[in-house]
Design goal:
- The protein is mostly beta strands.
- 9% of the residues lie in helices and 28% in strands.
- The protein contains nine helices and 40 strands.
- The strands form eleven sheets. The protein has a five-stranded antiparallel sheet, with no helix packed on it. A five-stranded mixed sheet has the order 2-34-35-36-37, with no helix packed on it.
- A hairpin with a 4-residue loop joins strand 32 and strand 33.
- The protein is globular and about 70 Å long.
- Mean pLDDT is 89; it is low at 1-27.
Length: 723
């Protein structure tokens, strides 16, 4: 289905000549965009294994979410560089018509850009002008929004042999014609619709198959991967990441290794977790697909599997044969994970000289705070050092490959301040490796959380079953200086040397956590990163010195990409706040100031200023408390608990400006329709699903009473409510 979008285009300008001779096209050398030879016309989306292997010979293209199978998120192009970055400006933009989180890195092939938005909608655009070529809408039932732990996001497409592959939020995997957007085939990947599984990651092409995982560990699921023949869509294999209840048959032979690491009283009813919702990489020469797996469900290992062991293959890196799905090796980054320390963060495949020997390695900076260098053929641990503050483990034992746990990480009996916090030292935002500098650039999170076992677990379908293990009251007191707890909260852009395992330089990019986006490095010795305040920031890749600070006007989480068309280099990024950390807009964020209109924004040398949206009126609202709503202290207290239990608070932040509507500003007509919305699903098409499966009429009444009381408090000046 074609959807019309408004495109703003800066008329082409005459580029100033970039001095220098085109470099030899080998890894580590920059490639000037104007030196590139035009590629001959090809079938749209004409990518195959041979072309991918020679990606550096065609640096004008960005072939996959992280550019290549090696997932380095690096462009050899150097027309935009450390000497002229201040000339970077607006080229064109494309408005997605959305207001939720945008996390994808576009794919650009032979002058065509393929990007994804909310629900798994695909946009195909002319990469030089932004002209819409086609769009595809998978038409996901809005009720699926409730099944996603962390917004209705999507992280991109895979393009292969004339086809575009995308996974919709509801788990359907589509193969589309790259030239027209026509659907070729669709396959369902969710095998248990009673569990709240979703798909938000980009599919991975490997060994002739297209592979997709799923998310939902917080919702009580059992993670797995599914592979389909990329040409026909025929089912190829499925790999379950954690074992099933031992009273049931285990689906793949690798679970014979995993099952003994779970105790006999494990909470099989909660699913086990381990969902592979993002990171994958592929080495065609070794014929190995690398998959990062997620946290356990529920989070605390001592609740998830009392008396159990490491709970494999939670928080692990798996090396699988992509043709058969059989595992060659695994490495568990966080045995007994109790802190939501996923290993789903980007993995990058590099050839590094370590101790005088060229090694084929896999590197990853997962949430647990250690930077891992593994032999990607065997899984051998080569090195592992802290890239941020860590106190749950002292170090990684190089003989066993296991972390040496500390008492500070054990919150089974009392609250503990743990570094890093639940968001990890590095979350989903892509890192980047420069073949020029030899540094891995990591969007690092530097802040802890107080972990506390706050309640017993009873599994409830349709709500968050990760357990609330963060003592939010304690961390809030610490942040206000009311408790003697050292709390450092900021984002850091870090240039990390993977060979010597140390930081070369770092710069603080935000004093609020999770406010800085993913990273791009290039052959022009620059690093590009967006932020929640609505700027694209350019840094010197060798020193970290700021080079350019471009106002965009929309918050940025996604990682930029770079490509070239007709000898002109571009940097493109998707802009739109959302995800797990952005339901409430901080006052200095672009979402608060300008709203959150989703856009693809593209930059080039000698461009102009980026058109910014109009400022949003955020003046304090005069609230008229609703009339005729029955309340009592008991109803209000119970409603507050239910508001959190049903995960209403995950989207709606009473009194605050955010992505979802502020429920304290509901009009009288909305109050009258409250039950039809909450229980009847009257607004499910907009993503507000019915909660009648977990809430009764009485429950909805208590939540309504709580919100009415909050509105009354706001009207009497106890709460400041803004538009």
């Amino acid at each position: 289905m074609c959807i019309s979008r408004r495109i703003t285009l800066l008329l082409p300008v005459i580029l100033l000549a970039v001095c220098g001779v085109a470099s030899r096209n080998i890894p580590g050398d920059p490639v000037h965009a104007e030196s590139l030879k035009p590629t001959s016309p090809k079938q749209p989306g004409a990518v195959d294994e041979a072309r991918m292997a020679q990606a550096d010979a065609e640096p004008q293209n960005w072939y996959a979410t992280n550019r290549t199978f090696a997932a380095d998120h690096y462009s050899p192009l150097s027309q935009i560089n450390d000497s002229n970055a201040e000339r970077l400006g607006f080229a064109w933009q494309y408005n997605t018509g959305t207001t939720r989180g945008l996390e994808a890195s576009p794919v650009v092939i032979d002058g065509v850009m393929y990007a994804t938005g909310n629900w798994g909608v695909v946009y195909a655009l002319d990469a030089a002008t932004g002209r819409e070529l086609w769009t595809f809408n998978p038409h996901v039932d809005g009720r699926w929004a409730r099944r996603a732990c962390c917004d209705i996001v999507n992280r991109g497409v895979a393009v292969w042999k004339g086809r575009v592959y995308v996974a919709a939020l509801d788990g359907r995997l589509f193969a589309l014609d790259a030239g027209t957007g026509r659907q070729i085939w669709v396959r369902g990947t969710i095998i248990d619709h009673d569990r709240f599984l979703t798909s938000t990651g980009a599919p991975q092409i490997a060994g002739g198959n297209v592979i997709i995982g799923n998310g939902g560990a917080e919702m009580g699921v059992r993670g797995y991967l599914t592979a389909f023949d990329a040409e026909t869509g025929a089912f190829a294999w499925r790999f379950f990441i954690v074992p099933a209840d031992p009273s049931k048959p285990q689906e793949n032979p690798e679970l014979a290794i995993a099952a003994p690491t779970w105790g006999p009283k494990s909470r099989w009813d909660v699913g086990g977790g381990g969902a592979a919702w993002d990171a994958m990489a592929y080495d065609p020469e070794l014929n190995l697909l690398y998959v990062g797996t997620g946290n356990g469900s529920p989070h605390p290992a001592f609740v998830r599997s009392p008396g159990g062991g490491d709970t494999l293959f939670v928080s692990s890196i798996l090396a699988l044969n992509p043709k058969t799905g059989r595992m060659k090796w695994y490495y568990q980054t966080t045995p007994k994970d109790s802190w939501d320390f996923t290993a789903t963060q980007q993995m990058t495949l590099l050839d590094l000289t370590i101790s005088g020997k060229l090694r084929k390695v896999l590197v990853q900076a997962p949430k647990n705070g250690f930077f891992y260098v593994l032999d990607r053929a065997t899984g051998e641990l080569i090195s592992a050092e802290k890239y941020t503050d860590v106190n749950w483990a002292d170090h990684i034992d190089m003989k066993t490959g296991r972390p040496v746990f500390t008492a500070q990480g054990d919150y089974s009996r009392e609250p503990k301040l743990v570094y890093p916090g639940e968001a990890g030292g590095h979350n989903w935002r892509p890192m980047s490796y420069s073949h020029r500098t030899g540094y891995v650039y990591i969007p690092t999170l530097d802040f802890p959380m107080v972990f506390s076992l706050s309640r017993d677990l009873a599994y409830h379908r349709g709500t968050d079953n990760s357990m609330d293990v963060t003592d939010r009251a304690a961390i809030s007191r610490a942040q206000k200086g009311e408790a003697d707890i050292p709390v450092i909260r900021h984002d850091t852009l870090q240039a990390y040397d993977p060979v010597h395992q140390r930081a070369a330089w770092s710069v603080v990019t935000s004093t609020d956590p999770e406010q800085s986006g993913g990273l791009l490095s290039t052959g022009g010795d620059i690093v590009a990163q967006g932020d929640a305040t609505g700027f694209l920031n350019i840094y010197d890749a060798r020193t970290g010195a700021p080079l350019s600070h471009i106002r965009v006007g929309t918050g940025i989480m996604a990682a930029p990409v770079s490509y070239a068309v007709a000898g002109r280099q571009y940097i493109a990024v998707m802009a739109g706040l959302g995800g797990a950390s952005a339901w409430e807009f901080p006052e200095k964020s672009a979402g608060y100031r300008y709203g959150n209109a989703g856009r693809i924004v593209v930059f080039a040398l000698d461009g102009g200023a980026v058109p910014t949206p109009a400022l949003v009126d955020r003046s304090v609202v005069a609230i008229s408390p609703p009339s005729g709503i029955r309340t009592s202290p008991e109803m209000i207290a119970r409603g507050a608990r239910l508001f959190d239990y049903a995960r209403c608070s995950g989207c709606h932040v009473p009194g605050k400006a955010g992505i979802a509507p502020n429920l304290l500003t509901m009009q009288e007509s909305t109050h009258r329709a409250f039950d039809q919305i909450v229980l009847g699903g009257a607004l499910s098409a907009a993503g507000m699903a019915s909660f009648s499966d977990i809430l009764t009429q009485s429950d909805a009444g208590d939540i309504h009473a709580y919100l009415a009381n909050e509105a009354k408090n706001a009207a009497t000046g106890h709460v400041a409510v803004r538009h």
